[in-house]
TrEMBL record:
Entry keyword Transit peptide: no
Pfam families in the record: COB_C, COBRA
UniProt record similarity statement: Belongs to the COBRA family.
Stretches assigned to the COBRA C-terminal domain: 204-341
GO process terms (BP): cellulose microfibril organization; plant-type cell wall cellulose biosynthetic process
Protein name: COBRA C-terminal domain-containing protein
GO cellular component: plasma membrane
Keywords: Glycoprotein, Signal
Residues annotated as signal peptide: 1-22
Domain of life, per lineage: Eukaryota
Species name: Oryza meyeriana var. granulata
Residues in coiled coil: none
Length: 374
């Protein structure tokens, strides 16, 4: 074994999410499916709504999903289990002992928090709107709630007898922020740490101590050891945000040598193979009860050993660094090619940091698409 490489490579994920219908080459078939299962079709009917995150690596983090649609007629929601509408709306026309849950033409529904009383739960509800990616957990990638819907006028059928009118204009609003929203603090002691803003379902702006990049998360790819036939990389993900834990975080990396990943420590890995034999992209995530949560002001680390593919492998030209990286579905900013660290001349302990250029914060895109299947 010879230790002849010590190269540092730093890049940063700026967390911002936006709803975009953009094509995602890493997960071209990813989508979110919303099912409406009508359990009874009467004047007042019961429907089980379920949301299935069929995306391989993108998940929905806190403050969670919000689902909205527009009623075709004058429907009102009499009751809801496993979720709730954000506003009751104007129900003054409704007389009687029972108050409707929501009279909005365009209701906005949010999930209930964990620990909701059992009699207000349905299966797969009550996770605070958080949906994991399909790869990480195919059970918690689904959410559901049940509602009882009736009509103000007793006519909830559309066009006669075809059954309840389907609502339209569905939307899931996924909140986000970018580096520019960050509140900078000079936190050097516990007492200076800011209070967590009251969680009212809104996204919390990142708060972190001053760094030169001012981004909440840094992914550090460290090419650590070169063996004769293998090489070793250490990856550290650092959370600079003082008020946010990333639960069920994930990291997607594209690198041509991932097809020869031989050994991995402390993380899970699953290749994301989408184009025949091209096996250059995969998802890393934490081990349950060990490091699945990236704590505020903390970090998680892995080391991996890759086999040097003959005719392909090289330390020159930046080949050893990833081509593309996403943290929690947000594409990380990569250094421009001329700022890649070079091989250390002869010294063993050369450390080259490329953090400076990151002063220009860029946004990341979260792309989702919705298919309505009934
Ligand atoms: C869900 O995941 C579990 C364990 O990760 C796996 O055994 C099971 O086959 C998966 N189910 C489906 C439908 O993919
Ligand atoms: C972040 O900043 C943008 C632009 O200034 C703003 O539209 C957005 O609401 C902010 N987000 C939060 C969570 O404060
Ligand atoms: C942080 O420290 C700098 C220099 O000491 C000071 O100018 C700045 O106001 C401080 N910021 C906060 C948020 O305390
Ligand atoms: C993050 O997790 C730690 C340990 O579980 C907890 O003490 C802290 O309150 C959490 N922070 C937030 C913002 O939820
Ligand atoms: C893809 O690469 C992984 C190692 O990262 C390997 O275990 C797996 O067998 C490869 N799959 C295919 C289809 O080549």
């Amino acid at each position: 074994m010879e230790v002849d490489q010590l190269i540092l490579f730093v890049f940063v994920s700026c967390l911002s999410s936006r709803f975009a219908g953009a094509y995602d080459p890493v997960d071209p078939n990813g989508n979110i499916i919303i099912n409406w299962d009508f359990q009874s079709i009467e004047n007042v009917y019961t429907v089980m709504v379920s949301i299935h995150n069929h995306q391989l690596y993108r998940h929905i983090e806190q403050p969670g999903w919000r689902l909205s649609w527009r009623w075709a007629g004058d429907e009102i929601i009499w009751g809801m289990t496993g979720a709730e509408a954000t506003e009751q709306g104007d129900c003054h026309r409704i007389r009687g002992a029972t108050r409707p849950h929501c009279c909005e033409k365009q209701p906005v529904i949010v999930d209930l928090p964990p620990g909701t009383p059992y009699n207000n739960q349905v299966a797969n509800c009550c996770r605070g709107g958080v949906l994991s990616s399909l790869t990480q957990n195919n059970r918690t990638s689904t959410a559901a709630f049940q509602m009882v819907v009736g009509s103000f006028k007793h006519v909830s059928y559309h066009d006669g007898a075809r059954g309840p009118a389907l609502p339209s204009r569905f939307g899931i609003g996924v909140p986000g922020y970018s580096c520019s929203n960050a509140t900078k603090v000079n936190a050097t002691s516990e007492s200076e740490k800011p209070e967590l803003p009251a969680g009212d379902g809104e996204a919390i702006s990142p708060v972190f101590r001053c760094t030169d990049h001012m981004c909440p998360v840094r992914v550090h790819w460290h090419v650590k050891i070169s063996y004769r036939e293998y090489w070793r990389v250490k990856v550290t993900i650092t959370n600079y945000n003082l008020v946010k834990n990333y639960s069920n975080w994930n990291l997607v990396v594209q690198h041509p040598n991932l097809r020869s990943l031989t050994q991995l420590f402390s993380f899970n890995y699953q290749p994301l193979i989408q184009y025949g034999t091209v096996n250059n992209t995969g998802i890393f995530w934490g081990i349950q009860y060990y490091n699945e949560m990236l704590l505020q002001d903390g970090n998680v680390q892995t080391e991996m050993i890759l086999r040097k593919d003959k005719g392909d492998f090289t330390f020159s030209g930046g080949w050893a660094f990833p081509r593309r990286v996403y943290f929690d579905g947000h594409e990380c900013v990569m250094p421009p090619p001329d700022q890649y660290p070079l091989l250390p001349n002869r010294g063993l302990d050369s450390r080259i940091s490329v953090a400076q250029w990151l002063l220009m914060a860029s946004s990341c895109l979260l792309s989702l698409s919705i298919f309505l299947i009934v």
